[in-house]
Design brief:
Layout: E1 2-3, H1 6-15, E2 22-23, E3 36-37, H2 46-52, E4 57-60, H3 66-74, E5 79-82, H4 87-100, H5 108-118, E6 127-130, E7 132-134, E8 139-140, H6 146-153, E9 156-158, H7 172-177, E10 182-186, E11 206-209, H8 211-215, H9 224-237
C-alpha cells in the first residue's frame, strides 16, 4: 500500500506493520517509518508511486488533488478515497480503510479512541474561538471541517462555522474585533508558535495546540480530547502570550 495521507499512514502502520511501501514526506508518524517517500500530499511523485506497484493507494478528498488520483487510476492502480469532516465519520472511514488494507478486525487503538470520544463529559460552559490555520493572508476554520467538529465536541464553538467557505480568508482586524474567548493556534499546516501568532491578538487568550491532535484522524484520536482540553484550559488561565508549549 501507498498512503498519501499522514493520518492514514499512522493508522495503517500502527495496525499492519510492514504493509506500507510508500508514504508522503509529511507522514511523520509513527516515528522511524521506513518506507519510500513519494513527495507531498498536493504534489506526489506519480512515477515513484507507480514504480512501487502498490495493491492500493490511500487518499483523502481534501488533502489530495483529484487530477493526481485520476492519473493513478488511469495507470491501473486502485485508489481508496476517504472523506472525513466529523469525528464519527473519521471512525467509519478508518475502519473502512483498515479493512481494505487487510486488517482482520478493529484494532485496539481504534476501540480506545472511539471510547475516548463517546465518553466525553459535558463541558461546563461553551467557549467561542477563532482558529487561524494560516497567516499572510490570515485564514481560519470555516464550515464543515473535521477540526471544527473536534472542537465543538470539546465545548468550543468557532465563530466562522457558518461561513460559506471551509477555510475563509478573514482580515486580522475582523478576527480581533470578533473578541473570541480564545484564539486556537495549531502548529500545522502553518506552524504557529509562542513567538508567531499571539502578538497579533493582544489581550486575547491564545492556545497553541498540536495540529496532529486537532486535525489528524488516527491513533492520536485516543489522546486528543485530553491534550486539547488541557491546552484550552491553560490558555484561559494565561491570557495573551503567556502559555505553555504545544503538547
Amino acid at each position: 500500500m501507498v498512503s498519501l495521507v499522514p493520518s492514514l499512514t499512522e493508522a495503517v502502520a500502527r495496525t499492519l506493520p510492514g504493509a506500507l511501501v510508500g508514504a508522503t514526506d509529511w507522514c511523520t508518524h509513527p516515528a522511524g517509518l521506513d518506507v519510500t517517500r513519494i513527495g507531498g500530499t498536493k504534489n506526489p511523485g506519480l512515477d515513484r508511486i507507480l514504480a512501487l506497484a502498490p495493491d492500493l493507494v490511500i487518499a483523502n478528498e481534501e488533502e489530495n488533488r483529484a487530477p493526481d488520483l485520476d492519473a493513478l487510476r488511469v495507470a491501473g492502480l486502485e485508489v481508496l478515497v476517504t472523506e472525513v469532516r466529523s469525528v464519527p465519520q473519521a471512525f467509519a472511514e478508518l475502519e473502512r480503510t483498515l479493512t481494505a488494507c487487510g486488517a482482520p478486525g478493529r484494532p485496539r487503538w481504534l476501540e480506545r479512541a472511539e471510547a475516548a470520544w463517546t465518553s466525553l463529559p459535558e463541558p461546563p460552559a461553551r467557549t467561542t474561538a477563532v482558529v487561524p490555520i494560516w497567516r499572510r493572508p490570515w485564514m481560519v476554520l470555516g464550515r464543515d471541517t473535521f477540526a471544527g467538529d473536534v472542537l465543538a465536541r470539546l465545548g468550543v464553538d468557532h465563530l466562522y462555522a457558518g461561513h460559506r467557505d471551509r477555510y475563509p480568508r478573514v482580515p486580522l482586524e475582523e478576527l480581533c474585533a470578533a473578541a473570541p474567548d480564545v484564539v486556537v493556534l495549531p502548529d500545522e499546516p502553518y506552524r504557529f508558535t509562542s513567538d508567531d501568532g499571539p502578538e497579533a491578538f493582544p489581550g486575547l487568550p491564545c492556545a497553541p495546540v498540536s495540529g496532529r491532535h486537532l486535525t489528524w484522524y488516527g491513533p492520536s484520536l485516543a489522546e486528543a480530547p485530553r491534550v486539547l482540553a488541557e491546552a484550552l484550559r491553560a490558555a484561559r488561565r494565561r491570557p495573551g502570550r503567556s502559555f505553555p508549549p504545544t503538547a
